[in-house]
Amino acid sequence: MKRNVVINILGVIKDAKGRGHKRWHSWRPTISLVSHPDFPVDRMELLYEPEYLRLSKRIMEDVNQVSPATDVNLVETAWRDPWDFADVYAWLHEFAKHYTFDTDNEDYYLNITTGTHVNQICMFLLSEAQLFPAKLVQVSPDFEADQEHKSKGILRIIDLDLSKYDALSQRFFEQSQSGTEFLKAGIQTRDHGFNRIIEEIEQVAIHSRDTILLQGPTGAGKSQLARRIYELKTTRGEVTQSFVSVNCATLVGDGAMSALFGHLKGAFTGAQHARDGYLKQADGGVLFLDEIGELGLDEQAMLLHAIESKEFYPVGADKLIFSDFQLIAGTNQDLHKAIEQGKFREDLLARIDIWNWRLPSLKERMDDFEVNLDFELKQNARVLDRQIRFSQRAKDAYLTYAHSEEASWAANFRDLNASVTRMATLSPSGRIELPTVEREIDRLKNRWQSRSTPKDLELTLFLDSEKIEQIDMFDQLQLSTVIKVCQQSQSLADASRKLYDKSRLKKQSTNDSHRLRVYLQKFGLSYGQIKNRE
């Protein structure tokens, strides 16, 4: 079994009750703490102010008399005023920072019975923030006990399992934050440009239902910001229905129209049941179309009509469907360039470009790197259910590399999230040390170096570098081969026969041209584009 360790502040009034033998007939919180056989205390860290050294020694002797198995360590505090919140919190924070927690072999408890109210509040906050990987314990007098057992009192353990109270705490957290703090997930960002963007978005989110366009590189946080805009509007009563998030890059081929606008039963082969599309599901709420530049031109035309009239036809229907949603669109493309290439409708861009913000990359927001790092640590602590923090040397090394030119942060906050997750997972004690950071830096170097190697010429002819970065190496190699075959073939059908030369023989009826067309559409390409580039 694990050892029980209690961190306890000396009660300068209640622990001092009674003189001589009479003290054993008085309830004293520190003595009460070690008087419960079902809660053996193996070690007590007894925190005392310097002027109460004599009392602390007397209490240590009484603890040893009641519970000889309890080791008592006297710890002199250095706060100047036990009622000064900043002074007490800072001292306890430093104590936690330098204390060696052995969570594999010991369970920790903070006694919030003694000390000033400020002492107790600070200990609660440090436990809630997981700076102390501890549960709270509280003792109180037992007024129904007889005189002989009055000193024992009642003991209660308070387990701060915040997952039980997430919904409630989130509700009050959202109401207490300003709109800008909420949109930033409570992260105290320092980048002036980013803060200015968030301030503007807050005003628009509260006072407007116009379409919002979020631009920026992959991993810059467009999806998270869209959801928080929705949540902010919900708390203000601006919307009452669902948040529907769609990655348009996944809507390819014949199913794209059905996914967006729905279909009737029997509208096409395989449509055995009627289906509401994403636009209908978002009625009364917010529809987030990420990577909107990946939509086909037909879907773009219907989307434009749905935005302007709030009506549209499901596939196979002759009756209009009504849906009143607010659209938030996201893209990492230059949509004006896409218009020049014939890939995006100019009238649709004009309609969705009412409010347009570009989210900067992580590399462009290095002033905010450390606060985002701390945020990721806190998120991982909740997931792993243990305190996560760096040793000072480890954090200094990580920050130095993060700010170097060598660190590309190619996937932006996704890279940061993945990096912190790996280090936290590989630090079971909850403390990330320098060797773990050094291994992670090597891992990041190898990853970014492999990403920065020159791509196949075939891919760079048809896709920009940012789009290529989003494609797995497996798919890059496969797509490159497909492009080569298309370039060397006389027609789409000819290329299809070559590429599906084995599987087509196993089918009685083949439509290989359609298979190839759908495959190329997945990457925004067509056979005609490939041949026209020769």
Describe what this molecule looks like in 3D.
By secondary structure, the chain is of the alpha/beta class. Helices cover about 45% and strands about 15% of the residues. It has 23 helices and 15 strands. It has helices spanning about 30-35, 55-65, 85-100, 115-130, 165-175, 180-185, 190-205, 220-235, 255-260, 280, 295-310, 335-340, 345-350, 370-385, 390-400, 415-425, 435-450, 455-460, 465-470, 475-485, 490-500, 510-520, 525-530, and strands at about 5-10, 45-50, 70-75, 105-110, 135-140, 155-160, 210-215, 245, 285-290, 310, 320, 325-330, 355-360, 390, 430. The chain has a six-stranded mixed β-sheet with strand order 3-2-1-4-5-6, with helices on both faces. Strands 8-9-12-7-13 form a five-stranded parallel β-sheet. Strands 10-11 form a two-stranded antiparallel sheet. A hairpin with an 8-residue loop joins strand 10 and strand 11 (about 320). Helix 3 packs across helix 4 (about 115-130) and helix 15 (about 390-400) packs parallel to helix 17. The longest helix is centred in the C-terminal third of the chain and has 19 residues, at about 435-450. It is elongated and about 105 Å long. The mean pLDDT is about 85.
Structure keywords:
534 residues, alpha/beta, 44% helix
Describe the structure in brief:
The chain is α/β, with parallel strands linked by helices and about 525 residues long. It is about 45% helix and about 15% strand.
Please give the structural blueprint.
Layout: E1 3-9, H1 29-33, E2 43-48, H2 53-66, E3 71-76, H3 85-98, E4 106-111, H4 117-128, E5 134-140, E6 154-158, H5 166-176, H6 179-183, H7 192-207, E7 212-215, H8 222-235, E8 243-247, H9 255-261, H10 278-281, E9 286-290, H11 297-309, E10 311-312, E11 321-322, E12 326-331, H12 335-340, H13 346-352, E13 355-358, H14 369-384, E14 389-390, H15 392-402, H16 413-425, E15 431-432, H17 434-452, H18 457-462, H19 465-469, H20 473-487, H21 492-499, H22 512-521, H23 527-532
Parallel strand pairs: 1-2, 1-4, 2-3, 4-5, 7-12, 7-13, 8-9, 9-12, 14-15
Antiparallel strand pairs: 5-6, 10-11
